Amino acid sequence: MEIERKFLIEKLPDNIEEYPFHMIEQGYLSTDPVVRVRRSDDEYYLTYKGKGFLSREEYNLPLTKESYEHLVAKADGNVISKKRYLIPIEGTSLTIELDVFDKPFAPLVVAEVEFETEEEAMAFVPLEWFGEDVTNETEYHNSTMSRKIFGSGE
């Protein structure tokens, strides 16, 4: 089960380069249900996600590089690339996953925080540099973004 909240970020923290990060590329084979293939640095996964906003089922299966490359070529819509910083929240066991999207989604930046329980998620007080809570807005689901059509000016 994945339980997370998402927030828009207007300005990156000044010390962002101090944190570890992963380079992520992902494509969607299906968006209903969500079936995704992802490369995170040199690791590869096939993921199934159930329906939902705050919490939903999620299953990950490992792939080989060759399997990933074969499947991502079959992805519908946009293949999404982003740099994900891992920022611990001081005094907690929580980590911010700060996604800085590449084109065509740049300059979009989204912070996700995962929780053990829905109660913990609802009690979470966003950090002062977090923007709008977009947890319940489908336009910020990567699966929705994969289907976005860009005009010639974007």
Kindly describe this structure.
- By secondary structure, the chain is mainly beta.
- The chain has one domain (2-145): Hypothetical Protein Pfu-838710-001.
- It is 12% helix and 43% strand.
- It contains three helices and nine strands.
- A nine-stranded antiparallel sheet has the order 5-1-9-8-7-2-3-4-6.
- The chain starts with a strand and ends in a 9-residue tail after the last helix.
Count the domains: 1
CATH superfamily: Hypothetical Protein Pfu-838710-001
Q: Output mean pLDDT.
A: 95
Percent helix: 10-25%
The number of strands is 9
Stated plainly, the CATH topology is called Hypothetical Protein Pfu-838710-001
SSE sequence, one letter per element = EEEEEEHEEEHH
Strand content: 35-45%
Global morphology: globular
Strand order of the largest sheet: 5-1-9-8-7-2-3-4-6
CATH class: Mainly Beta
Assembly type of the chains comes to: single chain
**Separation of the first and last Cα atoms:** 35 Å
The assigned CATH architecture is: Beta Barrel
Q: Which blocks of ≥5 consecutive residues have pLDDT under 50?
A: none
- Give the number of helices: 3
Structural class: mainly beta
Q: Major beta sheet, specifics?
A: 9 strands, antiparallel
Radius of gyration: 15 Å
